[in-house]
């Protein structure tokens, strides 16, 4: 099996796992957690896992591997640069709305914010992501950043991108684990304890496994140098901002 | 600042964070969790975080970056290969004893094993680590593995090595988060709730942050190609087993 076939196999797996993660987190929160609302209730909290998994894991991971798809290499980099920035912006917006859901819910119930390790890792991931997006926009899309700065920024952007994904995996796993312990106390007739592995626990645990496998595949694609987009001319392709490209 | 200076700065940080992680997990379990025993009690459980963090995170990460230290490049690879295998074996043994501690504690208290997402990710990390160690030993230290197999195994070994570290970070964060929620319920006069961030919560959360920063630095060192040990001859250095090297 040659290297490109392995890429497309991993990329196909990545797409399947993306769909599986989103279905799994939606099914969990619809069927077992009562669905969604925006009213400060438990139903508002349910947006939190759905939006974080969809935004900070699935869309983020897909945005990150975009440049690696060999089918896109024959074309101008500009539209892919804009699609990368747009996917990441959508991912950031979903993540921020996902954080608003949990802050609103906590405030309505007088539960303190940002005390758990899960919340520390999750807020660090989102804050770094926001910094990364602004720095990426200023560095790679605006025309007045000097070329030397772009060359310095690119490896930092690639490295920080992978690190944010690792943070978001750790935040997801700790969050799902915490939620299942909270929800499945087994003190009422309606819920069985987490330790007896009722269907909801199996779905939640499976979501965690899907997220981890998705993240490892994305990181594998990102770290394989032969799957990096070959730049026909490093001067005008990688580091040129869109405005300068358009004015050429 | 040149590339080697950056390496040594990151490696120095990696060593400082190693010491900080071990001190932090020991202090947490000694001062706030009552110390250690091997009697099926809560004190036996306390070995679990100490041994997993020391073995599966700190020793594992240090074993992984061993070949990247440029000071070692001028010497024969063999002693470093043996030290790598020995550090990883010690790390694996500590991890397995750390798992025994939690299984014994659960069994003594009639708590089911392996139901939480934390336990699924943690057991997957340890099982993959055991497979990785055996495959690495058979592939790189025994004389009868064909050279073609070694060449095939090396990238898989490097990739799986990084993936196991990511799993162990996710398991650590979810485990510390879960433990702090269990321990700091705030229902007795002795413990304040986790949400009020008492000193124990700050120490536990800080341990999680130290582990994540340590892991990201180790992964950064591993993923930088210019810090890979240059093999003077790929035939005899990278892929030759020790027994063949000794008989040469």
Automatic annotation (TrEMBL), chains A, B:
GO CC aspect terms: late endosome membrane; lysosomal membrane
PROSITE patterns (alphabetical): CYTOCHROME_B561
**Topology term for the membrane:** Multi-pass membrane protein
Q: GO terms for molecular function, please?
A: metal ion binding; transmembrane ascorbate ferrireductase activity
**Which sequence ranges are marked TM in the entry?**
48-70, 82-105, 117-144, 156-176, 202-222
List each coiled-coil range: none
The UniProt keywords, alphabetically, are: Electron transport, Endosome, Glycoprotein, Heme, Iron, Lysosome, Membrane, Metal-binding, Oxidoreductase, Signal, Translocase, Transmembrane, Transmembrane helix, Transport
Q: Which reaction does it catalyse?
A: Fe(3+)(out) + L-ascorbate(in) = monodehydro-L-ascorbate radical(in) + Fe(2+)(out) + H(+)
Tell me the compartments it is located in. Answer: Late endosome membrane; Lysosome membrane
Write down the EC number: 7.2.1.3
Names of the cofactor(s):
heme b
Q: Signal peptide: which range, if any?
A: 1-20
Per the entry, what this protein does is:
Transmembrane reductase that uses ascorbate as an electron donor in the cytoplasm and transfers electrons across membranes to reduce iron cations Fe(3+) into Fe(2+) in the lumen of the late endosome and lysosome. Reduced iron can then be extruded from the late endosome and lysosome to the cytoplasm by divalent metal-specific transporters. It is therefore most probably involved in endosomal and lysosomal cellular iron homeostasis.
How does the record describe its quaternary structure?
A: Homodimer.
User: Mind telling me what this protein is named?
Assistant: Lysosomal membrane ascorbate-dependent ferrireductase CYB561A3
The record lists the organism as: Oryzias sinensis (Chinese medaka)
